[in-house]
Design goal:
The chain is an alpha/beta fold. Helix content is 40%, strand content 20%. It binds adenosine-5'-diphosphate (ADP), aspartic acid and magnesium ion.
Length: 838
Amino acid sequence: MFPARRAPHVHKFGGASLADAAAIGRAVAIVRGHRPEPTVVVVSAMAGTTDALLAIAAQAARGEERAAAGLIAELRARHRRAAEAVAGARRARAALLASIAAEFDELAALAAGLRLLRDLTPRTSDFIVARGERLSARLLAAALEAGGVPARYVAAEEVIRTDAHFGHASPDYARTDRAARRVLRPLLARGVVPVVPGFIGAAPSGELTTLGRGGSDLTATLLARALGAARVSLWKDVPGLLTADPRVVPDARVIPAVHTREAAELAYYGAKVLHPRALIPLAGRKIPLHVRPFADPASPGTEISERVGATGLPVKALSAATHQALLTVAGNGMLGVPGIAARTFAALQARRLSVSLISQASSEHSICFSVPEPAAREARAALLQEFREEIARREIDGVEVRPGVATIAVVGLGMAGTPGIAAGVFSALASGGINVVAIAQGSSELNISVVVDGRDAAEAQRRIHAAFQLARIGGGTVTRPERVDVVLLGFGRIGRMLAGLLARVRRPQAALRVVAVIDRSGFLFEPHGLSGRRLAALAAAKERGRAIARLAGARAATPEEAIAFITRRALSRPILVDVTADDTGPLLAQALASGMDLVLANKVPLAGPKAESDRLHELARSYGRRIRHETTVGAGLPVIDTYYKLIDSGDRVLKIEGCLSGTLGFLLDAMNRGRRFSEALRAAMAKGYTEPDPRDDLSGADVGRKALILGRLLGYPGELRPGAVESLVPPAARALPLGEFLERLEELDPPWQARVAAAAARGRVLRYVASVTPRSLSVGLREVDRLSPFAGLKGADNTVVFTTRRYRSNPLVITGPGAGPAVTAAGVLNDILRLAGA
Ligand code: ADP
Ligand code: ASP
Ligand code: MG
């Protein structure tokens, strides 16, 4: 007699659930909480590891040895750190560290080989990338053991069998069923928890394959199927399966229950939350699957099963596949000819190109379908080959490709037989002025898909989500839209002052919370918001020179790691506020792509190469995010705001001129009134108006950056040319050590005196002026008439003058304090409140 077998529970932990030792500890607690039921654990690689491994492989194959070695060292250190923290007894720890060392030694050797070969095949790529899952499985197995749960690492190749399609293998169900039962059942019978690396399988030859990105979801369902599991829990960084991607639609909601067919449709059409084929193994199996929040293990998340019937709302959720290409085969000779569609798809099938949307006009004049952008070229070639005779006979015109489109799938079982759904989708899109490129509806009426331009994809999803009132779907809410979570990047003088202001904002319309503070050393994250008192204490500690990483509750991390960590949490309408002076472009891109709006006081990312600042705006558009940066031009003065008000009211801005440096304004004002340069500069330094090295102000570089930002607003297409900014530091003084420069300031007095006197003799005064038009940009010292708006400037004030079509003979002037942490922090706060809609 066999002992009665209890059906096991398969738990899969996603990358975010294994981000570091603390997360691994929580995963152990979850497993322990479900014991003693028989348990199988599947793991994905630690967050970011798969991407890092792929990057290493690509870099090595391009010969970028240093970059690859750096990434390898980083990954190795990260895994070692986690291992040191989770492993228990000395022997177990030594074994774990040895297996980590072996994986990374092999990786280094593989990278060296690739450097010589310069050829990265999918087979090699699989071999490299699969170690991410092996490493995390070893870590979790050791952590479970250390936590008193008997566990055993099981090689994925022993249980998951696939075909030989490297990089994107398909499972062989029958062989997987047999292998998984043979290997896992004896362990389960002894109460041992098998820990299986997800994402990996073995080809018939025994060689290692991977199941495609997100493949560990599929590993979990394959094992559940083989073992006749009682249930599958996929622990993820989201509260469940949501009505839409929360990074794109901020008021997406958890769907408490969905039918397997609905979930499969969403996954297949791009919802990143599930591997596209993860649900196929469970078809007809009555094994419920739950998408559950790792951050909140008590919450039920979403149940996906075949028991769930249609609910009140016809549409349940949306998903989007971006970076698609639309291919059209068209020609008059196609009419009534049988087999064109069949041949089209057979030709694609033969190359394993998967098509996500198909539509054919009833005139049969054209067939149109979408494929992922990278596959477009091959798909076109396949069809040109297949139809070469028809093309030669002019029955088919050719194959047209339109890249850069997105497919949006609107899914719900309740749509079947409900009239007006398609009309609802179209009118939602029309209300946003969004053009529909193509449409398809499956005969099941479970899914309506529309193709739109990629740049419209985010707005399209928000419009459809709102039109079908998906925010009303029952169950827990993901986000409480009344809350706005602020993440401070940079905690210098402006950052600290801003924190103080934020703590005092009382606006019922938008509860602002500072959830994280990041500096170069690390970050502090508090999902419920840092209290005013806590922020004040942090500011005081930072003021005393302590790095954030050294404060209680904080972690050491690079800003990239900090943002990756923070954006994996379910934040509510998050805003990243950049108050650094660093080159944060890549970080800001990362934040936009993870669904954050941006407020910048930092000029650097907007005043670098045009391609980089354009990229940020482009990313913001494609993710439906907003960027505000009022303080990058005139601190608290409403310069950019005024520009948009003019434009919105139909005016055209021809030129903007400004005195945009409080420091230089102060200096020149003092000299125009008779003070010596050396004296005026020392006074400016004593008042704290200058940078630590006043030559940073005198060089005009900062004004140059402000001018460039203003110029780009007007459409100025260029870069900051070296000659465009006049430096007030004579060449001989540029290289001096700071001390010597300051000692010898008096030497600069006579030439300044001469310049001021010459201007005065002409009835003029000296000003440092930036001037931009859509076509030109210049920054430098100018003699201005005593009647000019610039002449009357006092102290450290800024003045900005708009010449527009309406304000041409009498330009619009804005004057006021344009520098200093207090006005800047207030300006940043204004931008935040604007985004918060308060
Ligand atoms: P795992 O850690 O298990 O690999 P993933 O990162 O692959 O999990 O999937 C979760 C991510 O999927 C979320 O961070 C979320 O941004 C994204 N996502 C896209 N569409 C949805 C959706 N409809 N519901 C939930 N998450 C979604
Ligand atoms: N680690 C793999 C990936 O990032 C597989 C997975 O997470 O499921 O795609
Ligand atoms: Mg995944």
